[in-house]
Amino acid sequence: MTTANLLEFDLEGLAAFCEKLGEKRFRATQLFRWIHQRGASDFAQMTDLAKSLREKLATTARVEALPVLTQHESKDGTIKWLFDVGDGNAVEAVFIPEDDRGTLCVSSQAGCAVGCRFCSTGHQGFSRNLSTGEIVAQLWFAEHFLRKHLKRDERVISNVVMMGMGEPLQNYTALVPALRTMLDDNAYGLSRRRVTVSTSGVVPMIDRLGTDCAVALAVSLHAPNDALRDDLVPLNRKYPIAELIEACKRYLAHAPRDFITFEYCMLDGVNDQPEHARQLVELVRAHGISCKFNLIPFNPFPASGLLRSPQPRVLAFARTLSEAGLVTTVRKTRGDDIDAACGQLAGDVKDRTRAAERMAQRRIVSERPIVLHPVRKTFPQEH
Prior knowledge:
The protein is an alpha/beta fold and about 375 residues long. It has twelve helices and 14 strands. The strands form three sheets. It has a ten-stranded mixed β-sheet. Strands 1-2 form a two-stranded parallel sheet. Helix 5 (about 130-150) runs parallel beside helix 6. Residues about 365-383 have low confidence and may be disordered.
């Protein structure tokens, strides 16, 4: 008999499951607390549930985590896990400890179909979407492992960023129940301001997320004009910068923060020149959007054909943005000694998309003598 993995359900879904068993909806809240707040997977431990319910659950349900294939701990305290999701696929999650918070970077897909040039995951191709349970299982395992590992009774993970493997908004149906579980006070009780979805710019789903489950939004921008972004982030050909920025402005009406974060990976000689910084300033002013820029040091890998921008150039770029009144930070690299830094998550993917072949061809085209793309303004002029 097939049993249901209860990590697949948000509270509403679990309540519906309990009703099918002939139980009152409030039993779902008790069960939800046992699973997520206490990390219980054995129904016999759930002593405030009626014995009859525990017996039903024993034959109809399970709480099943993802098998851990490897665990690596960085010298800076960052921990990376490789989780087996079956059929030759594995995904990575990363815990990043800081003085005032603990952040878990969570994957949403086995691989990624977007194919950004600077992302190691994209070069592996795409196999499949993760289920809600597989997304939540990364948090469930990490939170309760860390409590034991760090010998703490209180919550360890205060922030979740959907910045691991995959494009979260291309797995929308599974993503939203997972977010609701993260936010639920009967589960992890995370603040909407402390749960971030990072997207490469799936415009229709940005609008839906604002209505369905508004959390903090980070957008992988990486270029100030369409000509350059078309090459770095292929999704831009479908949803160009002007459409993306307008979607971000609409999202602000629902967002828990009063700004959108724009992620910008600094690539040597590609998108890090003074004119690129000036174009970003013009872009923001033209659209009048409240935003913050997060400049990310690139973590090189051989297949990309790209290099990290020198630190002085990164700081000069940041200074141009800051002096124009734009809040700008330079991300501190964490976990790079265990390949856990931004853009390095690769896992193990049974690719269905011939990504390596396609990316190699794009690299050949991009490595022709002209490195910098011509500037093409696509944003409206100020009136």
